[in-house]
Amino acid sequence: MSEHEVDLVVIGTGPGGEALATGAAKAGLRVVAVDKHLVGGECPYYGCIPTKMMVRGSDVVAEVRRAAEVAGEATIAPAWSVVHRRIDEQATTHWDDTIAVDRLKDAGATVHHGVGRLAGPGRVEVTTADGEVITYATARGVVLNPGTRPAVPPVEGLADTPYWTNRDAVQVAEVPGSLVVVGGGPIGCELAQVFSRFGVRVTIVQHGPRLVPADEPEAAELLEQVFVQEGIRVLTGVELQRASYADGGFTLALDSGEELRADKVLVAAGRTPNLDDLGLETVGLDPHARTLDVDERLRVQDGIWAIGDVTGKGAFTHVSMYQSAVALRDVLDQGGAPARYHAVPHATFTDPEIGGVGMSEQQARDAGLTVRTGSTKLEESSRGFTHGPGGHGVIKVVEDADRGVLVGATAMGPAGGEILGFLAVAVHAEVPVDTLRTMIYAYPTFHRAIESALADLS
Ligand SMILES: Cc1cc2nc3c(=O)[nH]c(=O)nc-3n(C[C@H](O)[C@H](O)[C@H](O)COP(=O)(O)OP(=O)(O)OC[C@H]3O[C@@H](n4cnc5c(N)ncnc54)[C@H](O)[C@@H]3O)c2cc1C
Ligand SMILES: NC(=O)c1ccc[n+]([C@@H]2O[C@H](COP(=O)([O-])OP(=O)(O)OC[C@H]3O[C@@H](n4cnc5c(N)ncnc54)[C@H](O)[C@@H]3O)[C@@H](O)[C@H]2O)c1
Protein backbone atom coordinates (compact mmCIF):
# COMPACT_ATOMS: atom_id res chain seq x y z
CA MET A 1 0.00 0.00 0.00
CA SER A 2 1.49 3.35 -1.00
CA GLU A 3 0.14 6.91 -1.02
CA HIS A 4 0.97 9.72 -3.45
CA GLU A 5 -0.12 13.29 -4.05
CA VAL A 6 -1.10 14.25 -7.59
CA ASP A 7 -3.28 16.93 -9.21
CA LEU A 8 -5.88 14.84 -10.99
CA VAL A 9 -7.03 11.22 -11.21
CA VAL A 10 -9.17 10.11 -14.15
CA ILE A 11 -11.09 6.91 -13.40
CA GLY A 12 -12.07 5.21 -16.63
CA THR A 13 -10.51 6.16 -19.92
CA GLY A 14 -13.33 6.06 -22.42
CA PRO A 15 -12.88 8.44 -25.35
CA GLY A 16 -13.55 11.47 -23.15
CA GLY A 17 -11.46 10.35 -20.19
CA GLU A 18 -8.48 9.55 -22.40
CA ALA A 19 -8.69 12.96 -24.09
CA LEU A 20 -9.10 14.79 -20.79
CA ALA A 21 -6.19 12.99 -19.13
CA THR A 22 -4.03 13.74 -22.17
CA GLY A 23 -5.00 17.42 -22.19
CA ALA A 24 -4.50 17.86 -18.45
CA ALA A 25 -1.09 16.17 -18.55
CA LYS A 26 0.00 18.28 -21.50
CA ALA A 27 -1.08 21.38 -19.56
CA GLY A 28 1.41 20.40 -16.85
CA LEU A 29 -0.84 18.78 -14.23
CA ARG A 30 0.30 15.63 -12.43
CA VAL A 31 -2.27 13.21 -13.88
CA VAL A 32 -3.05 9.58 -13.11
CA ALA A 33 -5.29 7.71 -15.56
CA VAL A 34 -6.79 4.37 -14.48
CA ASP A 35 -8.62 1.85 -16.62
CA LYS A 36 -9.63 -1.62 -15.58
CA HIS A 37 -9.60 -2.81 -19.18
CA LEU A 38 -8.41 -0.98 -22.30
CA VAL A 39 -7.41 2.68 -22.58
CA GLY A 40 -9.86 4.22 -25.05
CA GLY A 41 -12.89 2.40 -23.68
CA GLU A 42 -15.78 0.72 -25.49
CA CYS A 43 -15.74 2.79 -28.68
CA PRO A 44 -12.45 1.76 -30.28
CA TYR A 45 -12.40 -1.89 -29.17
CA TYR A 46 -16.02 -3.07 -28.92
CA GLY A 47 -18.25 -0.23 -30.11
CA CYS A 48 -18.19 2.42 -32.81
CA ILE A 49 -15.02 1.49 -34.66
CA PRO A 50 -15.27 -2.30 -35.07
CA THR A 51 -19.03 -2.11 -35.69
CA LYS A 52 -18.56 0.51 -38.37
CA MET A 53 -16.02 -1.76 -40.08
CA MET A 54 -18.72 -4.45 -39.97
CA VAL A 55 -21.22 -1.98 -41.42
CA ARG A 56 -18.80 -0.98 -44.18
CA GLY A 57 -18.48 -4.62 -45.21
CA SER A 58 -22.20 -5.25 -45.15
CA ASP A 59 -22.91 -2.06 -47.13
CA VAL A 60 -20.52 -3.20 -49.85
CA VAL A 61 -22.33 -6.55 -49.97
CA ALA A 62 -25.67 -4.76 -50.34
CA GLU A 63 -24.40 -2.39 -53.02
CA VAL A 64 -23.01 -5.24 -55.12
CA ARG A 65 -26.37 -6.98 -54.85
CA ARG A 66 -28.02 -3.80 -56.18
CA ALA A 67 -25.63 -3.56 -59.11
CA ALA A 68 -27.80 -5.52 -61.54
CA GLU A 69 -30.54 -2.89 -61.27
CA VAL A 70 -28.30 0.07 -62.04
CA ALA A 71 -25.10 -0.99 -63.74
CA GLY A 72 -24.99 -4.66 -64.67
CA GLU A 73 -24.38 -8.05 -63.18
CA ALA A 74 -21.91 -8.29 -60.33
CA THR A 75 -21.50 -10.99 -57.77
CA ILE A 76 -19.95 -11.12 -54.36
CA ALA A 77 -19.19 -14.04 -52.07
CA PRO A 78 -19.37 -12.36 -48.65
CA ALA A 79 -16.45 -13.49 -46.50
CA TRP A 80 -16.58 -12.69 -42.81
CA SER A 81 -12.88 -13.45 -42.49
CA VAL A 82 -12.16 -10.16 -44.32
CA VAL A 83 -14.22 -8.16 -41.84
CA HIS A 84 -12.74 -10.04 -38.90
CA ARG A 85 -9.20 -9.42 -40.10
CA ARG A 86 -9.78 -5.68 -40.50
CA ILE A 87 -11.22 -5.45 -36.98
CA ASP A 88 -8.52 -7.60 -35.46
CA GLU A 89 -5.52 -6.04 -37.18
CA GLN A 90 -6.52 -2.49 -38.10
CA ALA A 91 -9.21 -1.42 -35.62
CA THR A 92 -8.14 -3.01 -32.38
CA THR A 93 -4.57 -4.27 -32.96
CA HIS A 94 -5.71 -7.59 -31.47
CA TRP A 95 -7.58 -5.80 -28.63
CA ASP A 96 -4.30 -4.36 -27.36
CA ASP A 97 -4.11 -0.79 -26.07
CA THR A 98 -0.31 -0.39 -26.00
CA ILE A 99 -0.44 2.45 -28.55
CA ALA A 100 -3.06 4.35 -26.52
CA VAL A 101 -1.20 3.78 -23.24
CA ASP A 102 2.08 4.99 -24.74
CA ARG A 103 0.35 8.07 -26.19
CA LEU A 104 -1.00 8.93 -22.75
CA LYS A 105 2.36 8.32 -21.08
CA ASP A 106 4.10 10.45 -23.71
CA ALA A 107 1.71 13.26 -22.79
CA GLY A 108 3.05 12.99 -19.24
CA ALA A 109 0.35 10.98 -17.44
CA THR A 110 0.86 7.99 -15.16
CA VAL A 111 -1.26 5.12 -16.48
CA HIS A 112 -2.53 2.17 -14.47
CA HIS A 113 -4.43 -0.87 -15.66
CA GLY A 114 -6.55 -1.47 -12.59
CA VAL A 115 -9.75 -0.61 -10.79
CA GLY A 116 -10.12 2.95 -9.49
CA ARG A 117 -12.48 3.74 -6.63
CA LEU A 118 -13.19 6.95 -4.76
CA ALA A 119 -11.99 6.70 -1.16
CA GLY A 120 -13.45 9.85 0.32
CA PRO A 121 -13.29 13.46 -0.94
CA GLY A 122 -10.32 14.00 -3.26
CA ARG A 123 -8.93 10.51 -2.69
CA VAL A 124 -8.75 7.54 -5.03
CA GLU A 125 -7.69 3.98 -4.35
CA VAL A 126 -6.30 2.07 -7.32
CA THR A 127 -6.08 -1.71 -7.25
CA THR A 128 -3.72 -2.55 -10.07
CA ALA A 129 -3.95 -5.64 -12.25
CA ASP A 130 -1.24 -7.35 -10.18
CA GLY A 131 -3.03 -6.65 -6.89
CA GLU A 132 -1.04 -3.64 -5.66
CA VAL A 133 -3.13 -0.97 -3.92
CA ILE A 134 -2.07 2.64 -4.46
CA THR A 135 -3.82 5.60 -2.85
CA TYR A 136 -3.81 9.01 -4.49
CA ALA A 137 -4.65 12.29 -2.78
CA THR A 138 -5.60 14.86 -5.42
CA ALA A 139 -4.95 18.61 -5.35
CA ARG A 140 -7.54 19.42 -8.08
CA GLY A 141 -9.84 16.42 -7.99
CA VAL A 142 -11.17 13.36 -9.77
CA VAL A 143 -12.80 12.86 -13.17
CA LEU A 144 -15.19 9.91 -13.49
CA ASN A 145 -15.55 8.36 -16.96
CA PRO A 146 -16.50 4.75 -16.20
CA GLY A 147 -18.97 4.17 -19.06
CA THR A 148 -21.44 1.30 -19.21
CA ARG A 149 -21.63 -2.46 -19.69
CA PRO A 150 -24.30 -4.47 -21.50
CA ALA A 151 -27.52 -4.84 -19.50
CA VAL A 152 -28.88 -8.36 -19.26
CA PRO A 153 -32.68 -8.44 -19.02
CA PRO A 154 -34.03 -10.47 -16.10
CA VAL A 155 -35.23 -13.34 -18.28
CA GLU A 156 -35.43 -16.79 -16.69
CA GLY A 157 -32.44 -18.89 -17.67
CA LEU A 158 -30.75 -16.24 -19.86
CA ALA A 159 -27.85 -15.54 -17.48
CA ASP A 160 -26.88 -19.24 -17.57
CA THR A 161 -26.57 -19.34 -21.36
CA PRO A 162 -23.48 -18.40 -23.40
CA TYR A 163 -25.23 -15.38 -24.97
CA TRP A 164 -23.24 -12.77 -26.89
CA THR A 165 -22.98 -9.11 -26.08
CA ASN A 166 -21.49 -6.50 -28.40
CA ARG A 167 -18.08 -7.53 -27.05
CA ASP A 168 -18.47 -11.06 -28.42
CA ALA A 169 -20.16 -9.96 -31.63
CA VAL A 170 -17.21 -7.80 -32.73
CA GLN A 171 -14.74 -10.62 -32.07
CA VAL A 172 -16.41 -13.49 -33.91
CA ALA A 173 -14.20 -15.19 -36.46
CA GLU A 174 -17.04 -17.11 -38.11
CA VAL A 175 -20.69 -16.13 -38.44
CA PRO A 176 -23.32 -18.53 -37.09
CA GLY A 177 -26.14 -20.04 -39.12
CA SER A 178 -28.83 -18.27 -37.13
CA LEU A 179 -28.99 -15.45 -34.60
CA VAL A 180 -31.65 -13.99 -32.35
CA VAL A 181 -31.00 -10.37 -31.45
CA VAL A 182 -32.66 -9.33 -28.20
CA GLY A 183 -33.24 -5.58 -28.41
CA GLY A 184 -34.07 -3.37 -31.38
CA GLY A 185 -32.08 -0.27 -30.42
CA PRO A 186 -29.04 1.04 -32.31
CA ILE A 187 -26.76 -1.86 -31.38
CA GLY A 188 -29.35 -4.53 -32.16
CA CYS A 189 -30.35 -2.98 -35.49
CA GLU A 190 -26.86 -2.24 -36.77
CA LEU A 191 -25.62 -5.72 -35.95
CA ALA A 192 -28.77 -7.54 -37.09
CA GLN A 193 -28.43 -6.05 -40.57
CA VAL A 194 -24.69 -6.75 -40.74
CA PHE A 195 -25.02 -10.42 -39.82
CA SER A 196 -28.05 -10.88 -42.06
CA ARG A 197 -26.13 -9.56 -45.07
CA PHE A 198 -23.36 -12.05 -44.32
CA GLY A 199 -25.83 -14.91 -44.61
CA VAL A 200 -27.06 -15.34 -41.03
CA ARG A 201 -30.78 -16.01 -40.46
CA VAL A 202 -31.61 -13.17 -38.07
CA THR A 203 -34.62 -12.60 -35.84
CA ILE A 204 -34.96 -9.42 -33.78
CA VAL A 205 -36.97 -9.65 -30.56
CA GLN A 206 -37.92 -6.14 -29.48
CA HIS A 207 -40.18 -5.80 -26.47
CA GLY A 208 -41.36 -2.29 -27.32
CA PRO A 209 -43.82 -1.47 -30.10
CA ARG A 210 -41.15 -0.53 -32.63
CA LEU A 211 -37.47 -0.59 -33.54
CA VAL A 212 -35.16 2.33 -32.65
CA PRO A 213 -37.58 3.88 -30.15
CA ALA A 214 -35.35 6.93 -29.64
CA ASP A 215 -35.89 7.91 -33.29
CA GLU A 216 -39.00 9.20 -35.05
CA PRO A 217 -41.72 6.60 -35.73
CA GLU A 218 -41.41 7.28 -39.48
CA ALA A 219 -37.77 6.17 -39.33
CA ALA A 220 -38.61 3.07 -37.32
CA GLU A 221 -41.37 2.10 -39.76
CA LEU A 222 -39.11 2.42 -42.81
CA LEU A 223 -36.31 0.52 -41.08
CA GLU A 224 -38.63 -2.35 -40.27
CA GLN A 225 -39.84 -2.46 -43.90
CA VAL A 226 -36.26 -2.58 -45.18
CA PHE A 227 -35.30 -5.26 -42.66
CA VAL A 228 -38.25 -7.43 -43.59
CA GLN A 229 -37.48 -7.01 -47.32
CA GLU A 230 -33.91 -8.12 -46.63
CA GLY A 231 -35.17 -11.25 -44.87
CA ILE A 232 -34.74 -10.23 -41.24
CA ARG A 233 -37.59 -11.39 -39.03
CA VAL A 234 -38.73 -8.50 -36.83
CA LEU A 235 -40.84 -9.32 -33.78
CA THR A 236 -42.04 -6.23 -31.93
CA GLY A 237 -44.21 -6.01 -28.85
CA VAL A 238 -43.11 -9.42 -27.60
CA GLU A 239 -41.50 -10.41 -24.32
CA LEU A 240 -38.82 -12.99 -23.96
CA GLN A 241 -39.91 -15.25 -21.10
CA ARG A 242 -37.34 -18.05 -20.85
CA ALA A 243 -34.01 -18.92 -22.40
CA SER A 244 -32.04 -22.14 -22.38
CA TYR A 245 -29.01 -23.60 -24.12
CA ALA A 246 -28.35 -27.25 -24.93
CA ASP A 247 -26.51 -29.25 -27.60
CA GLY A 248 -25.02 -26.15 -29.20
CA GLY A 249 -28.29 -24.30 -29.62
CA PHE A 250 -30.52 -21.76 -27.88
CA THR A 251 -34.24 -22.07 -27.24
CA LEU A 252 -36.13 -18.88 -26.46
CA ALA A 253 -39.73 -18.89 -25.26
CA LEU A 254 -41.78 -15.78 -26.10
CA ASP A 255 -44.94 -14.58 -24.39
CA SER A 256 -46.75 -15.08 -27.72
CA GLY A 257 -46.32 -18.83 -27.17
CA GLU A 258 -43.75 -19.15 -29.96
CA GLU A 259 -40.43 -20.85 -29.32
CA LEU A 260 -37.41 -19.60 -31.23
CA ARG A 261 -34.32 -21.70 -31.83
CA ALA A 262 -30.97 -20.25 -32.85
CA ASP A 263 -27.25 -20.98 -32.92
CA LYS A 264 -26.46 -17.73 -31.13
CA VAL A 265 -28.23 -15.01 -29.16
CA LEU A 266 -27.02 -11.42 -29.07
CA VAL A 267 -28.24 -9.41 -26.09
CA ALA A 268 -28.45 -5.72 -27.06
CA ALA A 269 -31.10 -4.61 -24.61
CA GLY A 270 -29.57 -1.44 -23.20
CA ARG A 271 -26.69 -0.68 -20.88
CA THR A 272 -25.90 -0.71 -17.16
CA PRO A 273 -23.81 2.21 -15.87
CA ASN A 274 -20.51 1.28 -14.22
CA LEU A 275 -21.36 3.26 -11.10
CA ASP A 276 -21.82 0.39 -8.66
CA ASP A 277 -18.13 -0.26 -7.89
CA LEU A 278 -16.74 3.25 -7.94
CA GLY A 279 -16.75 4.13 -4.23
CA LEU A 280 -19.48 6.74 -4.81
CA GLU A 281 -20.84 6.13 -1.30
CA THR A 282 -17.54 7.45 0.17
CA VAL A 283 -18.40 10.94 -1.13
CA GLY A 284 -22.12 10.82 -0.34
CA LEU A 285 -23.31 9.74 -3.81
CA ASP A 286 -25.65 6.87 -4.64
CA PRO A 287 -23.85 3.86 -6.17
CA HIS A 288 -27.19 2.52 -7.44
CA ALA A 289 -28.03 5.64 -9.48
CA ARG A 290 -28.45 5.22 -13.25
CA THR A 291 -26.72 8.52 -13.97
CA LEU A 292 -24.61 11.12 -12.20
CA ASP A 293 -26.14 14.60 -12.09
CA VAL A 294 -23.70 17.08 -13.56
CA ASP A 295 -23.86 20.85 -13.91
CA GLU A 296 -23.04 22.77 -17.09
CA ARG A 297 -19.30 22.33 -16.35
CA LEU A 298 -19.68 18.57 -15.72
CA ARG A 299 -19.17 19.00 -11.98
CA VAL A 300 -20.87 16.43 -9.76
CA GLN A 301 -19.66 18.12 -6.60
CA ASP A 302 -16.62 20.14 -5.56
CA GLY A 303 -13.57 18.35 -6.96
CA ILE A 304 -15.49 15.65 -8.85
CA TRP A 305 -16.36 15.82 -12.54
CA ALA A 306 -18.18 13.15 -14.57
CA ILE A 307 -18.22 12.74 -18.34
CA GLY A 308 -19.55 10.25 -20.87
CA ASP A 309 -22.44 7.82 -20.90
CA VAL A 310 -22.95 7.97 -17.10
CA THR A 311 -24.08 11.60 -17.33
CA GLY A 312 -27.22 10.56 -19.22
CA LYS A 313 -26.82 13.31 -21.84
CA GLY A 314 -26.54 10.92 -24.80
CA ALA A 315 -24.53 7.70 -24.87
CA PHE A 316 -22.34 8.68 -27.79
CA THR A 317 -18.63 9.11 -28.30
CA HIS A 318 -19.11 12.67 -29.54
CA VAL A 319 -20.93 13.58 -26.31
CA SER A 320 -18.13 12.07 -24.23
CA MET A 321 -15.56 14.05 -26.22
CA TYR A 322 -17.57 17.27 -26.06
CA GLN A 323 -17.97 16.97 -22.30
CA SER A 324 -14.31 16.12 -21.96
CA ALA A 325 -13.32 19.45 -23.51
CA VAL A 326 -15.73 21.43 -21.29
CA ALA A 327 -14.59 19.61 -18.14
CA LEU A 328 -10.91 19.99 -19.01
CA ARG A 329 -11.34 23.76 -19.31
CA ASP A 330 -12.99 23.74 -15.89
CA VAL A 331 -10.23 21.62 -14.35
CA LEU A 332 -7.69 24.09 -15.75
CA ASP A 333 -9.78 27.13 -14.63
CA GLN A 334 -9.99 28.31 -18.23
CA GLY A 335 -13.73 29.06 -18.35
CA GLY A 336 -15.17 29.04 -21.85
CA ALA A 337 -18.59 27.98 -23.08
CA PRO A 338 -20.61 25.72 -20.75
CA ALA A 339 -22.12 22.46 -22.00
CA ARG A 340 -25.45 22.67 -23.83
CA TYR A 341 -27.45 19.74 -25.10
CA HIS A 342 -30.19 21.25 -27.27
CA ALA A 343 -28.60 19.93 -30.47
CA VAL A 344 -27.13 16.52 -29.62
CA PRO A 345 -26.81 14.63 -32.92
CA HIS A 346 -26.66 10.90 -33.53
CA ALA A 347 -26.32 8.61 -36.49
CA THR A 348 -27.39 4.99 -36.48
CA PHE A 349 -25.44 3.19 -39.19
CA THR A 350 -28.10 0.93 -40.57
CA ASP A 351 -28.78 1.08 -44.30
CA PRO A 352 -30.54 3.46 -44.71
CA GLU A 353 -28.68 5.46 -42.06
CA ILE A 354 -30.72 7.32 -39.49
CA GLY A 355 -29.41 10.72 -38.51
CA GLY A 356 -31.20 12.60 -35.76
CA VAL A 357 -30.60 15.84 -33.88
CA GLY A 358 -32.32 17.60 -31.01
CA MET A 359 -35.88 16.71 -30.07
CA SER A 360 -38.23 14.24 -31.68
CA GLU A 361 -41.74 15.47 -32.45
CA GLN A 362 -43.02 13.75 -29.31
CA GLN A 363 -40.31 15.24 -27.11
CA ALA A 364 -41.11 18.70 -28.45
CA ARG A 365 -44.82 18.21 -27.71
CA ASP A 366 -44.04 16.83 -24.23
CA ALA A 367 -41.92 19.96 -23.63
CA GLY A 368 -45.05 22.06 -24.25
CA LEU A 369 -43.81 23.70 -27.46
CA THR A 370 -46.13 24.82 -30.24
CA VAL A 371 -45.00 22.18 -32.71
CA ARG A 372 -45.14 22.15 -36.49
CA THR A 373 -43.61 19.30 -38.45
CA GLY A 374 -42.74 18.77 -42.07
CA SER A 375 -41.51 15.66 -43.82
CA THR A 376 -40.71 14.27 -47.21
CA LYS A 377 -39.74 10.90 -48.61
CA LEU A 378 -36.24 10.81 -50.02
CA GLU A 379 -37.19 8.52 -52.89
CA GLU A 380 -39.58 11.22 -54.10
CA SER A 381 -36.69 13.68 -54.50
CA SER A 382 -34.77 13.78 -57.78
CA ARG A 383 -31.69 12.35 -56.12
CA GLY A 384 -33.59 9.57 -54.40
CA PHE A 385 -35.31 8.70 -57.68
CA THR A 386 -32.07 8.61 -59.69
CA HIS A 387 -30.32 6.67 -56.92
CA GLY A 388 -32.83 3.85 -57.32
CA PRO A 389 -32.38 0.75 -55.14
CA GLY A 390 -31.32 1.65 -51.62
CA GLY A 391 -32.52 5.23 -52.07
CA HIS A 392 -35.34 5.11 -49.54
CA GLY A 393 -35.40 7.58 -46.71
CA VAL A 394 -37.20 10.37 -44.95
CA ILE A 395 -36.42 13.91 -43.91
CA LYS A 396 -38.45 15.24 -41.02
CA VAL A 397 -38.14 18.62 -39.36
CA VAL A 398 -39.65 19.68 -36.04
CA GLU A 399 -40.24 23.40 -35.55
CA ASP A 400 -40.91 25.43 -32.45
CA ALA A 401 -43.52 27.54 -34.23
CA ASP A 402 -43.50 30.29 -31.59
CA ARG A 403 -39.80 30.96 -32.16
CA GLY A 404 -39.69 29.95 -35.85
CA VAL A 405 -36.67 27.68 -35.39
CA LEU A 406 -36.06 23.96 -35.78
CA VAL A 407 -35.67 22.12 -32.47
CA GLY A 408 -35.20 18.69 -34.00
CA ALA A 409 -34.76 16.87 -37.27
CA THR A 410 -34.25 13.46 -38.83
CA ALA A 411 -32.33 12.63 -41.98
CA MET A 412 -32.75 9.01 -42.95
CA GLY A 413 -31.39 7.63 -46.19
CA PRO A 414 -28.12 6.95 -47.96
CA ALA A 415 -25.55 9.06 -46.05
CA GLY A 416 -28.30 10.16 -43.64
CA GLY A 417 -25.66 10.83 -40.98
CA GLU A 418 -23.87 13.21 -43.34
CA ILE A 419 -27.00 15.06 -44.47
CA LEU A 420 -27.68 15.48 -40.77
CA GLY A 421 -24.78 17.93 -40.60
CA PHE A 422 -26.89 20.61 -42.25
CA LEU A 423 -29.78 20.05 -39.85
CA ALA A 424 -27.47 19.91 -36.82
CA VAL A 425 -26.19 23.41 -37.68
CA ALA A 426 -29.77 24.65 -38.07
CA VAL A 427 -30.82 23.29 -34.66
CA HIS A 428 -27.56 24.21 -32.90
CA ALA A 429 -27.41 27.79 -34.16
CA GLU A 430 -31.20 28.23 -34.05
CA VAL A 431 -31.21 29.44 -37.65
CA PRO A 432 -34.65 30.92 -38.38
CA VAL A 433 -36.78 28.68 -40.59
CA ASP A 434 -37.40 31.75 -42.79
CA THR A 435 -33.66 31.93 -43.42
CA LEU A 436 -33.45 28.20 -44.20
CA ARG A 437 -36.26 28.69 -46.71
CA THR A 438 -34.38 31.43 -48.60
CA MET A 439 -31.32 29.26 -49.22
CA ILE A 440 -30.42 27.68 -52.55
CA TYR A 441 -30.18 23.87 -52.30
CA ALA A 442 -27.93 22.22 -54.90
CA TYR A 443 -29.77 20.05 -57.43
CA PRO A 444 -30.03 17.08 -57.37
CA THR A 445 -28.60 16.34 -53.92
CA PHE A 446 -30.09 14.35 -51.08
CA HIS A 447 -29.92 17.41 -48.85
CA ARG A 448 -32.14 19.29 -51.27
CA ALA A 449 -35.01 17.22 -49.84
CA ILE A 450 -34.68 19.35 -46.69
CA GLU A 451 -36.22 22.21 -48.68
CA SER A 452 -39.27 20.03 -49.39
CA ALA A 453 -39.57 19.07 -45.71
CA LEU A 454 -39.46 22.76 -44.74
CA ALA A 455 -42.15 23.53 -47.33
CA ASP A 456 -44.30 20.85 -45.71
CA LEU A 457 -44.22 22.46 -42.22
CA SER A 458 -47.73 22.63 -40.88
C1 LIG B 1 -21.74 -1.78 -30.14
C2 LIG B 1 -21.67 -0.30 -29.88
C3 LIG B 1 -21.63 0.56 -30.96
C4 LIG B 1 -21.54 1.93 -30.73
N1 LIG B 1 -21.50 2.77 -31.82
C5 LIG B 1 -21.40 4.09 -31.62
C6 LIG B 1 -21.30 4.98 -32.71
O1 LIG B 1 -21.31 4.58 -33.88
N2 LIG B 1 -21.20 6.30 -32.46
C7 LIG B 1 -21.17 6.80 -31.20
O2 LIG B 1 -21.07 8.01 -31.02
N3 LIG B 1 -21.27 5.97 -30.13
C8 LIG B 1 -21.38 4.64 -30.31
N4 LIG B 1 -21.44 3.81 -29.23
C9 LIG B 1 -21.41 4.39 -27.87
C10 LIG B 1 -19.96 4.71 -27.46
O3 LIG B 1 -19.16 3.54 -27.50
C11 LIG B 1 -19.91 5.32 -26.06
O4 LIG B 1 -20.82 6.37 -25.96
C12 LIG B 1 -18.48 5.84 -25.87
O5 LIG B 1 -17.59 4.77 -25.73
C13 LIG B 1 -18.35 6.82 -24.71
O6 LIG B 1 -18.44 6.15 -23.50
P1 LIG B 1 -17.78 6.67 -22.17
O7 LIG B 1 -16.85 7.79 -22.44
O8 LIG B 1 -18.85 6.92 -21.20
O9 LIG B 1 -16.93 5.43 -21.65
P2 LIG B 1 -16.58 3.98 -22.20
O10 LIG B 1 -16.14 4.03 -23.62
O11 LIG B 1 -17.66 3.06 -21.83
O12 LIG B 1 -15.28 3.66 -21.34
C14 LIG B 1 -15.30 3.58 -19.95
C15 LIG B 1 -13.98 3.00 -19.48
O13 LIG B 1 -13.98 3.03 -18.05
C16 LIG B 1 -13.37 1.85 -17.57
N5 LIG B 1 -13.80 1.68 -16.19
C17 LIG B 1 -15.06 1.55 -15.72
N6 LIG B 1 -15.08 1.52 -14.37
C18 LIG B 1 -13.79 1.63 -13.97
C19 LIG B 1 -13.14 1.67 -12.71
N7 LIG B 1 -13.83 1.60 -11.57
N8 LIG B 1 -11.80 1.76 -12.68
C20 LIG B 1 -11.08 1.84 -13.82
N9 LIG B 1 -11.65 1.82 -15.04
C21 LIG B 1 -12.98 1.73 -15.12
C22 LIG B 1 -13.81 0.78 -18.56
O14 LIG B 1 -12.90 -0.31 -18.56
C23 LIG B 1 -13.79 1.55 -19.89
O15 LIG B 1 -12.55 1.42 -20.55
C24 LIG B 1 -21.51 2.43 -29.41
C25 LIG B 1 -21.53 1.55 -28.33
C26 LIG B 1 -21.60 0.20 -28.55
C27 LIG B 1 -21.61 -0.73 -27.36
N1 LIG C 1 -24.49 4.58 -34.12
C1 LIG C 1 -24.50 4.94 -32.84
O1 LIG C 1 -24.33 6.10 -32.46
C2 LIG C 1 -24.67 3.88 -31.80
C3 LIG C 1 -24.67 2.54 -32.14
C4 LIG C 1 -24.84 1.61 -31.13
C5 LIG C 1 -25.00 2.04 -29.84
N2 LIG C 1 -24.99 3.35 -29.54
C6 LIG C 1 -25.20 3.83 -28.16
O2 LIG C 1 -25.20 2.76 -27.26
C7 LIG C 1 -26.41 2.79 -26.50
C8 LIG C 1 -26.83 1.41 -26.15
O3 LIG C 1 -27.37 0.74 -27.29
P1 LIG C 1 -28.45 -0.40 -27.16
O4 LIG C 1 -29.01 -0.63 -28.53
O5 LIG C 1 -27.94 -1.56 -26.38
O6 LIG C 1 -29.47 0.21 -26.15
P2 LIG C 1 -30.85 1.00 -26.23
O7 LIG C 1 -31.24 1.19 -24.82
O8 LIG C 1 -30.77 2.18 -27.09
O9 LIG C 1 -31.81 -0.04 -26.94
C9 LIG C 1 -32.12 -1.26 -26.34
C10 LIG C 1 -33.39 -1.81 -26.92
O10 LIG C 1 -33.66 -3.06 -26.33
C11 LIG C 1 -35.02 -3.14 -26.03
N3 LIG C 1 -35.16 -4.07 -24.91
C12 LIG C 1 -34.85 -3.86 -23.61
N4 LIG C 1 -35.12 -4.95 -22.88
C13 LIG C 1 -35.60 -5.89 -23.73
C14 LIG C 1 -36.06 -7.22 -23.58
N5 LIG C 1 -36.09 -7.81 -22.39
N6 LIG C 1 -36.49 -7.87 -24.68
C15 LIG C 1 -36.48 -7.28 -25.88
N7 LIG C 1 -36.07 -6.02 -26.08
C16 LIG C 1 -35.62 -5.33 -25.03
C17 LIG C 1 -35.45 -1.72 -25.71
O11 LIG C 1 -36.82 -1.53 -25.99
C18 LIG C 1 -34.59 -0.91 -26.66
O12 LIG C 1 -35.21 -0.65 -27.88
C19 LIG C 1 -27.40 3.52 -27.38
O13 LIG C 1 -28.41 4.13 -26.63
C20 LIG C 1 -26.55 4.51 -28.11
O14 LIG C 1 -26.49 5.71 -27.39
C21 LIG C 1 -24.84 4.28 -30.50
Automatic annotation (TrEMBL):
Domain FAD/NAD(P)-binding: 7-323
Start and end residues of each Pyridine nucleotide-disulphide oxidoreductase dimerisation domain: 344-453
SUPFAM superfamilies cross-referenced by the UniProt entry: FAD/NAD(P)-binding domain, FAD/NAD-linked reductases, dimerisation (C-terminal) domain
Coiled coil (residue ranges): none
Pfam families reported in the protein's UniProt record: Pyr_redox_2, Pyr_redox_dim
Keywords attached to this entry: FAD, Flavoprotein
Cofactor names: FAD
PANTHER family: MERCURIC REDUCTASE
Family: Belongs to the class-I pyridine nucleotide-disulfide oxidoreductase family.
Protein name as annotated: NAD(P)/FAD-dependent oxidoreductase
Annotated organism of origin: Nocardioides conyzicola
